[in-house]
Amino acid sequence: MMFRASLFRSIAVCCTALVLAACGGTGAGTGTGPGGDPVAGGTAQILQISEPRTLDPVALGNQWVINAVLGNALYGTLMVNNPDSGAIEYSMATGFATRDGGATFDLTLRPDLRFSDGTPLDAAAVKFNWDRFADPANGSSYIEDAAVIAATEVVNPATLRVKMRHPVPHFAYTIVESSMNWIASPQALQPGRAAFDGNPVGAGPFTLQRWARQDVIELVKNPQYWDAPKPYLDRIELRTSGDSVQGYNTLISGGSDVIISSNWGSIEKLENQGFPTAVSPLHGGQHLSMNMRRAPFDDIRARRAVAAALDVNALNLTIYNGSGELPTTLFRESSPYYAPDLPLHTHDPATAQRLFDELAAEGKPVKFTYTTTAQTENRLLAESVQAQLSAFDNVEVEVRVIDIIDLIKLRYTHDFDVMTGGAFFDDPEPRLGTAFHGDSSRNTAGIDDASLNEALDTGRTSTDAEQRKVAYRTVQERLIDLMPAIFYTRTVAGAATGKNVGGLTMYGAGSVRPEELWIAE
């Protein structure tokens, strides 16, 4: 069972936010900015979406909505994916090669890499960090990613051999889209997380000067950074706001130089006003996850009824003023797995009402609670779902607003009826499997279907392009037939900068690279 990791399961922190759709006219991960060569110096005011609870890379999230720019600043990257082609490119690593179809890999590093405390960033340091991800005590949201590693072996200071529990030929994408891409100093980690938070040590382009929780994280240029003359900035002041309107306003008023955004409407307005923007156009998207473990959604008719009743175009209009891109299919046209004949959603009010009535006649009227957070987009979505379903008989929806930390816990305790989820990715491995495989602890809906599991396993392990294509077609068919989730918007991670800021570059799931940023004089 490819996703079984019972020895490694724990309550882990992950946060999936409502996000924006494709941004026409911008590069897929690179923003335009002032012309000319990069300029050295200056301080960038950056507005992120969430405050970290620790600076330990094991517990940070490498997504645009979860501390990606901070992790990249402190720790740099082993590798990235090209935002246009998707190809893996190397930075602190020089290779991640497999000769046996993904059963083993050799990670090779640049020679003479040093952490900011002077200790070596070598194969032993990577081993120390990656081994920590598999320990439930560390509370990593990427524990299942690390759990597919059977063993790590230091071959020499520049080479780490990674043996997998089963072949995972596309494991490089797992590293790119997780905080396994960030390596911290083992010496600094050993005294414990509290001490590390006061003095986090990495080999990234910046080091921590001050962290005033709930206020500002001040970073300064790392003079020992391996890729001189980067970083171009002298300082970064990182603040947090989950309010997309506030982010938009601070950028246009000059209060911020860079904002990380989870709101398509804000990104579109900024682009139309000539502000540089960047997006990571990912496949999949955001969805309403219906808990199949209990009533009413343990009955497939209830899931199909809600799916048929909801008009995702109307949701798009309410949340994004009609600007969002609807995920009509699981994969974009650019993907080899794109299947235009397999639409994710069909709005059919008559069928919805028939199913609601049928369930009510059996004494099972559809009644559920939509659990969400107070973030603007999350609340609007929940209220819009409630309003749409109020037009039908024999269905009742209650909206419950809770703190984001409590919402995160529900993803693992499964004490919910409906909540927002997501399955967004460049390559479908591993995120599609962790979202919907029956053996995944991050399978929010609780779907467990033999055909779906087998297809996801094949997609994960196969090196044959046609075999993967067949497998992911089966995945799409089973998700449409069983309807564990209702995809309502395409996920495209976004950021925007002031008009005098250059070098806006992303990788993975909207992970901004701060070493590339510069401010024109």
UniProtKB/TrEMBL annotation:
<comment type="similarity">
    <text>Belongs to the bacterial solute-binding protein 5 family.</text>
</comment>
<dbReference type="InterPro" id="IPR039424">
    <property type="entry name" value="SBP_5"/>
</dbReference>
<feature type="domain" description="Solute-binding protein family 5">
    <location>
        <begin position="89"/>
        <end position="433"/>
    </location>
</feature>
<keyword id="KW-0732">Signal</keyword>
<dbReference type="Pfam" id="PF00496">
    <property type="entry name" value="SBP_bac_5"/>
</dbReference>
<dbReference type="InterPro" id="IPR030678">
    <property type="entry name" value="Peptide/Ni-bd"/>
</dbReference>
<protein>
    <submittedName>
        <fullName>ABC transporter substrate-binding protein</fullName>
    </submittedName>
</protein>
<dbReference type="InterPro" id="IPR000914">
    <property type="entry name" value="SBP_5_dom"/>
</dbReference>
<keyword id="KW-0813">Transport</keyword>
<feature type="signal peptide">
    <location>
        <begin position="1"/>
        <end position="21"/>
    </location>
</feature>
